[in-house]
What we know:
Layout: H1 12-24, E1 43-47, E2 50-53, E3 58-62, H2 76-88, H3 100-112, E4 118-122, H4 125-140, E5 144-148, E6 163-164, E7 174-175, E8 195-198, H5 203-213, E9 217-222, H6 238-249, E10 252-256, H7 268-273, E11 279-282, E12 293-297, H8 299-302, H9 304-307, H10 320-361, E13 367-369, E14 374-378, H11 388-405, E15 411-413, E16 418-420, H12 427-443
Parallel strand pairs: 3-15, 5-8, 5-9, 9-10, 10-11
Antiparallel strand pairs: 1-2, 2-3, 4-12, 6-7, 11-12, 13-14, 14-16
Bound molecules: pyridoxal-5'-phosphate.
Pyridoxal-5'-phosphate is lined by residues 124-126, 129, 152-154, 223, 228, 256, 258-259, 283.
Amino acid sequence: SSEDGTRSWSNTKSLALHERAAKVMPGGQANFRGGLLSTPLFFSHARGARLWDVDGNEYVDLINAGGPGILGHNDPEYIDALKRQLDTVYSLGSGICQTEQDIELAEKIASHVPCAERVRFCVTGSEAVHLALRLARAYTKRPYFIRFQTHYHGWFDSVLGGVVDEHPEGRPLPLESEQSFFHTEGRVPDAFKYSFLLPWNDIDVLEETLKKYGHEVAMIHMEPILVNGGGCPPRPGYLERVRELCDQHGIVLGFDEVITGFRVGLGGAQAALGVTPDLATFGKALGGGMPMAAVAGKAEIMDQLRTGKVTGAGTFNGYPLGVAASLATLKILERDDGAVYRRIDMMQARLKEGLLDICKRRGIPALVQGPRGVFFLLFTDKPVIYSFQELMEAALPRQFKFYSTMPEEGTLLMYGGRWYISAALTEADVDCALESADRTLARI
Ligand code: PLP
């Protein structure tokens, strides 16, 4: 803010960089970033829970790299671990040259995550999902998989977007649609042929589908808590019933824990919710900021990688700098019986109470929902939202205005209005973010 207390925000330098980038970079680095602001920002540096842009604007960072930043920026112990690794060896060809740290990291994951009898590292969540699907198909010798509307499993052809539609044979196949948020041209025409896209949290639809097609389904993959569709929890008993159905039909149950893994706790959503999948995919917080991902799961399925029945490869899998980053992250998260998680809980509670207070004072209906470490502020008077469809009906236009205006008031949120909490967040940061929210609501 300026000296007289009024905020002055401008993005002149960011705008100039935006124009420069447009000449060589088609749409920036990834298509989904456009939703953050009508004008993209360019950043220069970060400290703790704060980010600065090239115009000198300072922000409370509640994007946290889109999930990886569970420790915030510049955690000294994390940085030290990276520096030490840089001085030792930072890159080796995966599968050719391994380190002892690879085993230590796999052992750590296995000790925390209920389904993790075996672990294979990848670099991104998208790849982890790709490998998990391959493992499940090889294991069951079946071609199909089931996924759910508004669950996000990366950008590869067969899992991105789509809408539920009527298929000539009655199969609820996902079809390409320009209405879909994740619409893309350029897929092979049958990219969705071997999958079903169903509404989540609806056990009847799943049961019906499995009655007809269960014997053809290799895997059901889902976000066990639907962070990508509004922080929705599973309905009571839903995951337990899905587990039973998978056992009855011989289907591999997969949890996509790319967001929830190591964020909602060391054991992920599966430990928090008490339902153990057969396979789980991890990414984001696993690396604490460096790209790291993994597939973890039952020995019988994962050991197909040992026998060579299934191939999973990647030049950078288990690269030493990433493994060091993950080990440092997990060591920090394990410390003092989860002190980091307790701190995250405290800051999240302070944010939640503050936001609900502000909305109440302004006469705006509000719901804060989501698991530990990531939540949504939704403008609805419903006590809980169980699907993205409900969210659309409830709150979307105001939602969009809110999160796209927040940066001008000093706080960065993920598109959709998602708040990622890091361990670096202080009471002062929380109070700043609450003031941003209050000013934003006054404006919109
Ligand atoms: N799965 C989930 C649940 C995700 O949220 C994401 C990314 O946001 C992915 C998979 C894909 O991960 P990545 O972007 O690292 O490829």
